[in-house]
């Protein structure tokens, strides 16, 4: 062993570097998943991994670097195309060449990134989430909810210091109709890896007092609009889809709908658009009430007019009936007066008849009297008093 050739580590590493440069002189497109991605001094440092499709166990790992000169060009293009920054968990297609440094070891040097590959992977993952939500029967649950007509008590999920939240509140407060709204903020992280956990926590807080609110608004503004990854997760989508109150999303992303947009009740583009939607909704309710008031007023006027006309007609009929009844009753009275006049006893007395009374009662039968009874006989011109003798 003493006679065998020995190398210093630097020399041996140099041999490795020369072998790699000789055997792998070209650039290569490689598919991988980012297990780590960070920037430092304008450079981007990545950790790449390939996982077994069945067990999800890593089968290959490597480090990669994108130097500042290249990174300043590929990063903006990637974010404009995908709508998201490079982040851990993302699948990427990188153009690389190998580099082995005697002091720092092996790494792949990134010279280009194909954002369309990542877009395809994102779309595929999104479709898997959508398929899962549909399989669970919750994908359309939010759209089955009706936004209340008097939607004024608003639970807002947003970063407390976000400019979009301030814009949202000002838009509500300064509305042209003078309508009143009552927003309550539930602060949450709206960018980065903690979005999912933070927004779900805010939803849980609102759910504990759901009867105090009419609607939930999830808004995001004032920061970078590129990182939407936190809104494309299954747990957050499930929470939103199953929430008992209607949810409006306004998270400032024009390019594509995220899964959160798809499962919400109503999707708008920005926080101000969310406020404008709520103002218009309540204004429509006010207009509906005004229309009902006008219709009711018209109906009451018509009813009053018809009622007065009917009263006039009934008054005329009643007056006519009363007049007819008076004529009839007057005729009856006249006939009765005639009959009474014909039955007047004085007329009989004038004809020579007389009326015999005993104790003030007319005597019709002699058997009513006995000897000694005193009778009174009335004739036309006086009275005759007589006593029964026999």
Describe this entry's structure for a reader.
By secondary structure, the chain is α/β, with parallel strands linked by helices. The chain folds into 3 domains: 9-134, Beta Barrel (OB fold (Dihydrolipoamide Acetyltransferase, E2P)), CATH 2.40.50.140; 137-284, Hypothetical protein af1403, domain 2 (Rossmann fold); 345-387, no CATH class. Helix content is 43%, strand content 24%. It contains 9 helices and 14 strands. The protein has helices at residues 9-23, 68-82, 115-136, 163-173, 195-208, 234-241, 259-263, 271-342, 345-350, and strands spanning 28-40, 43-51, 58-66, 91-101, 105-113, 153-158, 182-187, 215-219, 247-250, 266-268, 355-358, 361-362, 374-379, 382-387. A 5-stranded mixed β-barrel has the order 1-2-3-5-4. Strand 11 (355-358) and strand 12 (361-362) form a beta hairpin. Helix 2 (68-82) packs parallel to helix 3 (115-136), helix 4 (163-173) runs parallel beside helix 8 and helix 5 (195-208) runs parallel beside helix 6 (234-241).
Would you spell out the secondary-structure blueprint of this structure?
Layout: H1 9-23, E1 28-40, E2 43-51, E3 58-66, H2 68-82, E4 91-101, E5 105-113, H3 115-136, E6 153-158, H4 163-173, E7 182-187, H5 195-208, E8 215-219, H6 234-241, E9 247-250, H7 259-263, E10 266-268, H8 271-342, H9 345-350, E11 355-358, E12 361-362, E13 374-379, E14 382-387
The order of strands across the largest sheet is 1-2-3-5-4
Q: What's the average pLDDT? A: 89
Round the Cα radius of gyration to an integer and report it. 53 Å
CATH level 1 class label of the largest domain: Alpha Beta
Put simply, the count of helices is: 9
Tell me roughly what share of residues is in helical segments.
Answer: 40-55%
Question: Which spans of ≥5 residues are poorly predicted at pLDDT below 50?
Answer: none
Alpha-carbon distance between the two ends: 192 Å
Which second-level CATH architecture of the largest domain applies? 3-Layer(aba) Sandwich
Number of domains: 3
């Amino acid at each position: 062993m003493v006679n065998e050739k020995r190398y210093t580590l630097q020399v041996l590493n140099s041999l490795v570097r020369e072998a790699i440069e000789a055997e792998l002189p070209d650039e290569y497109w490689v598919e991988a998943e980012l297990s780590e991605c960070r920037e430092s001094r304008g450079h981007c440092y990545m950790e790449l991994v390939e996982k077994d499709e069945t067990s999800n166990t890593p089968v290959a790992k490597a480090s990669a670097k994108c130097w500042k000169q290249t990174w300043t060009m590929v990063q903006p293009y990637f974010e404009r195309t995908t709508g998201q920054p490079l982040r851990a968990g993302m699948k990427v297609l990188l153009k690389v060449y190998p580099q082995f440094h005697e002091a720092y070891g092996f790494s792949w040097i990134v010279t280009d990134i194909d954002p369309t590959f990542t877009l395809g992977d994102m779309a595929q993952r999104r479709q898997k989430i959508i398929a899962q939500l549909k399989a669970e029967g919750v994908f359309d649950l939010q759209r089955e909810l009706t936004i209340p007509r008097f939607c004024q008590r608003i639970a807002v999920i947003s970063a407390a210091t976000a400019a979009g939240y301030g814009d949202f509140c000002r838009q509500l407060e300064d509305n042209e109709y003078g309508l009143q709204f009552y927003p309550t903020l539930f602060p949450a992280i709206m960018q980065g890896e903690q979005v999912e956990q933070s927004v779900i926590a805010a939803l849980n807080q609102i759910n504990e007092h759901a009867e105090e609110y009419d609607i939930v608004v999830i808004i995001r503004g004032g920061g970078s609009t590129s990182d939407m990854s936190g809104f494309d997760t299954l747990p957050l989508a499930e929470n939103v889809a199953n929430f008992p109150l209607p949810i409006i999303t306004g998270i400032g992303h024009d390019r594509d709908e995220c899964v959160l947009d798809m499962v919400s009740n109503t999707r708008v583009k920005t926080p101000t658009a969310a406020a404008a939607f709520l103002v218009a909704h309540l204004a429509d309710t006010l207009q509906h009430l005004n229309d009902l008031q006008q219709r009711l007023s018209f109906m009451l006027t018509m009813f009053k007019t018809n009622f007065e006309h009917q009263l006039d007609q009934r008054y005329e009929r009643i007056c006519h009936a009363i007049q007819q009844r008076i004529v009839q009753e007057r005729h009856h009275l006249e006939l009765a007066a005639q009959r009474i006049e014909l039955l007047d006893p004085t007329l009989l007395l004038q004809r020579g008849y007389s009326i015999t009374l005993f104790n003030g009662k007319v005597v019709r039968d002699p058997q009513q009297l006995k000897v000694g009874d005193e009778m009174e006989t009335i004739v036309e011109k006086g009275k005759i008093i007589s006593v029964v003798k026999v």
